[in-house]
Every structure is written in C-alpha cells, then in structure tokens.
Design a protein that fits this description.
The complex is a heterodimer of chains A (257) and B (231).
Chain A (H helix, E strand, L loop, with lengths): L1 H27 L3 H9 L2 H9 L4 H23 L3 H19 L2 H9 L7 H30 L1 H6 L4 H41 L4 H26 L3 H23 L1
Chain B lengths: L6 E12 L2 E12 L3 E5 L6 H8 L6 E6 L5 E4 L12 H8 L4 H4 L2 H4 L14 H13 L5 E5 L7 H17 L3 E5 L3 H7 L2 E6 L1 E7 L6 H8 L13
Parallel strand pairs in B: 3-7, 3-8, 5-6, 6-7
Antiparallel strand pairs in B: 1-2, 1-4, 8-9
Helix pairs in contact in B: 5-6
The chains are: A mainly alpha (257), B alpha/beta (231).
C-alpha cells in the first residue's frame, strides 16, 4: 500500500511537471480545449490495453500519436483550427472507447485510480515526462514566437508547422502518462488549470512556465494524498485541488490590482 | 552606366494567387543599395502580401532576387501580445540571446526603460519601437517596415521618425516601408511604389505631391491639408 502511494506520488510529481509545463504553451495558444479533448482520444487505446493486457500507457500513447498526426495534417490541408478538428475527432474516440472498454474498468479509465499504479507506471512517467519537458524546452521560445507572430517566426527560419506537430506529439506523451492517475476524462485538467493559475500571477515567461509546472505538481500530489486518505477516486480530487489553487491565484491577482 | 551590383533587390514578374484570387499581378521593380522605398496603395492592394512574398513566406511565381549576403530585418504591422506574459527583454532575447540588453538601445526604444515591462501593456508607440529593436537586433542591411505609425499616437511618432532618419543617414540600410502617411513618403523615402495588385506608379518620392500621380495612386486627388498637417 505504501509502495503504491510512493509510486503514485512519483508519477504525480512528474506528470504534474510535464503537464504543467506543456500546458503553459497550450493556454497561451488558446488551445486549452485541444488539450482537454485530446485526452479523450486516448480512451480506445486504453481500452485495447485493458482487453489485451498490455500497458495502457502504450495503447493510450499509440492512439494519441496517430490522432495528433491526423489532426495536424487535417489542420494543414483544411486550414481549420485545431480546436475544430479535435472537437470532431474526440467524441468519436470517446464513443468507440466506451463501447469496447470492459464495464468494470470504465470508471478507472475515465477517472483514474492510484491503487493500481505500479513501478512500471512510475518509471514510465519519470522517463516520458523528462523527455517531454526537455524537448519542449528546446522548442518553447520558437512556439511562443510563432504565437506572437507566425511571420516573424518563419522569417527567423522556424518551421512552424513542424514544431506544432512535435508539440502535439509531446502533449500526447504527457497526457498518456497522466491518464493512470486522473483518468482520460480529467487528464486535460492537468494540462489546462495549473497553466491558467500560473498565468493569473505571472508577468514573465520563465516564471510562468515554472509556476505552471509547480502548480501541476501541487494539484497532482494533493489529489493523490487526499484520494489515498479518504479512499476516493483520484481524478476528481486532483480537480478539486487544482480549482483551489486556481481560486487562490485569482485572489492574489485581484489583491495585486 | 548602370552597375548590376548597385541593386539590393530585383523583383521580376512577381505574381501571387491564393485560393484562385490574384493578390499580386506581375509586379516589377528594383531597388538600389542604401536607398529607401515607400510602398503606398489602397487597402487590400497587396502591400503586406508583397512583404510576405519578399520574405519568401508565401508561394509565388516570378523572381525575387536579393543581393548576396543580404540580412533582412522585418517589422510586421501586427503581433499578438495581449495574452502572453512576456517581457520586452525576453522577447528580444529570442533574436539576440547573447545580448538582449544591446538591443535596448535608447535611440530605438526611447528614454523610458521598458525592458522589464510586459509586451501586452506597452503603448502602440512603445510596441512599434520594440519591434524596430527586434528587427535591428542582428544588424540587418535591409529593413522591411510595415506601417511605421500604425496604432501610434502623435507624440510617439517622433522617436520612430528619428530612428528612420538615423538608419537612413548613418547606417546605409536599405529601407522598404509600407505607409499611408504622405509625410513619411516625402521625408523618409527616396522612391515611391504605388501598388494596387499591380504596380501603378514607380518613381521618386517627391512625385507624391504631384496631383497626376496622386490620381494614379488613390483614384482621386488627396484632400490638401491632410498630408501637410504633419509636415
């Protein structure tokens, strides 16, 4: 039991860091709903993982990866916004996932469960999160510049289309490892709310990214500890912790004014 | 006798079509090194698209030939800054990581130190000057400047004009600027290119005051008084 809690907390720390860090870009790009909806796309992969007994992280990531490439490609050729395309894709994935996933596992898949976190899950979270954060750090400024002005970015030799694809893939990674803790329905929360809270109290880009990661860790760990203490579903408690952090930052922002 | 090496830019038979609409149609002009060109024309004439094409940002037919070793600085008309918590120094460090401070030249940014301010809270004039600092950060020899005084109040125009004057007088930078401002055309450019999808006029900037040229550019005579108020 203690081992499971430790594995969960290690997973929570690293998922919190990567989701917060990557989410900081998603909130800036006004793509918050993309992060949220994208997480639902993982459900069919997760269902296949449960049905055929392979790690659900791999199934979730495979579906997220293929969906990200498809969404990026459709965005390029149709010029529709990512939000529109993700909106069209995620409900289909959710429908497929709900139909094929065994009923007994549905709740865990949708809302997460820390009681089943293994050393493999924790190790995967550490490795994947470190890779996702390092790669995102390498393209962070380029992505921000392309948000400020795509013309300026391209005139600086930045291939905005390629870095957007890489970013979507990295978000897929972060989301895939987060599913174990908060579930596919709520993992989008970890991408959006820590970043939104950080934005309330930041005026500087590097502080913003750091704070977003820190809030991600606080939300994930507080949710896991509360879930373990009260023996309740983890996902909703992570959401409650995050909302508390968000409200505090709103008050801080209000007081500063 | 005309020397080929005198030219920094040659544009020949340049056309841009997007979604079956002709945006630029057979544009031809060339520009001497160190000179300045004002590009004027009505809204939707293709002025910004011409810049985007010169920067090779859009697919086109025809030729855009820059002189060898040309380094281009670009000041766009608009950027999205409202929602991004980024300071002026952070923004400039994207371009000149080693020495963002050096980009904060007082001439370029005015006397107030805005380095630690967030881009989103700058005035229109301050933001234009930050964008100029961005464009000049890696010492370009060509500057493309889209609407120098857009969103800039009257008091803030002066430092921008001073920068243009300094670039023109001391630095031998070739300047291409898009403007609706006759004062800028007269004072800060050597040549005038009027665009309305195709080139409707190309000649010396002083011709902007010629009523016949004004008819060509605007379709009707510009009301007297408006341009001279700033002169």
């Amino acid at each position: 039991m203690v081992d499971t809690l430790i594995f969960s907390l290690v997973t929570g720390v690293f998922v919190g860091i990567s989701a917060g860090y990557l989410g900081s870009l998603m909130v800036l790009e006004k793509m918050s709903l993309v992060g949220d909806a994208l997480s639902h796309v993982a459900l069919p992969g997760l269902a296949l993982g449960i049905l055929f007994s392979f790690p659900i992280f791999l199934g979730a990531f495979a579906f997220l990866f293929v969906s990200s490439v498809a969404i990026w490609y459709l965005g390029r050729i149709t010029k529709l916004s990512y939000e529109t395309i993700v909106g069209a894709v995620f409900t289909l994935a959710l429908a497929i996932g709900v139909i094929i996933i065994p009923k007994a596992e549905l709740l865990e898949a949708l809302f997460g469960d820390i009681s089943t976190v293994t050393i493999f899950d924790a190790a995967a979270a550490v490795i994947v999160s470190v890779i996702a954060v390092i790669l995102t750090r390498l393209i962070y400024k380029k992505l921000v510049l392309s948000m400020i002005s795509e013309e300026l970015a391209i005139s600086q030799g930045i291939d905005t289309s390629k870095i957007n694809l890489l970013y979507l893939l990295l978000v897929s990674l972060a989301v895939a490892v987060g599913i174990k803790i908060v579930g596919t329905l709520l993992v989008g929360f970890l991408v959006i709310v820590p970043a939104a809270a950080a934005k309330n109290v930041s005026s500087d880009l590097s502080n913003y990214a750091l704070m977003s990661s820190a809030f991600g860790v606080i939300c994930a760990c507080a949710g896991i500890l509360a879930s373990s203490y009260w023996n309740l579903q983890t996902g909703p408690l992570v959401v409650f912790s995050g909302i508390l952090v968000f409200i505090i930052t709103v008050i801080v922002r209000w007081l500063r004014k | 006798m005309e020397n080929v090496d005198d030219y920094v830019l040659k544009v020949s038979n340049l056309s841009v079509k997007l979604q079956n609409q002709t945006i630029l149609d057979n544009v031809n002009f060339k520009l001497k090194k160190g000179s300045s060109l004002a590009i004027v024309g009505p809204n939707a004439a293709g002025k910004t698209m011409l810049f985007r094409t010169l920067l090779n940002l859009v697919p086109h037919t025809g030729k855009v030939e820059w002189a060898p070793r040309v380094k281009i600085g670009y000041v766009p008309q608009n950027i999205t800054v409202d929602d991004i918590p980024i300071s002026v120094k952070d923004f400039l460090s994207f371009k000149n990581e080693a020495d963002a401070e050096a980009s904060l030249s007082p001439v370029r940014l005015g006397k107030k130190n805005v380095g630690n301010k967030t881009l989103g809270i700058l005035s229109g004039g301050q933001l234009r000057r930050v964008l100029i600092a961005w464009a000049l950060a890696d010492n370009p020899n060509v500057l493309l400047f889209d609407e120098p005084t857009t969103g800039v109040d009257h008091d803030s125009e002066e430092p921008i004009f001073a920068t243009l004057q300094e670039l023109k007088d001391k630095h031998n930078i070739t300047i291409l600027l898009i403007t609706h401002d006759v004062h800028i055309v007269r004072e800060y450019s050597d040549y005038l290119l009027a665009l309305n999808r195709c080139v409707t006029f190309f000649g010396e900037s002083k011709e902007i005051m010629n009523p016949d040229v004004q008819k060509i550019i605007y379709g009707e005579t510009v009301c007297m008084g408006t341009p001279d108020e700033k002169a």
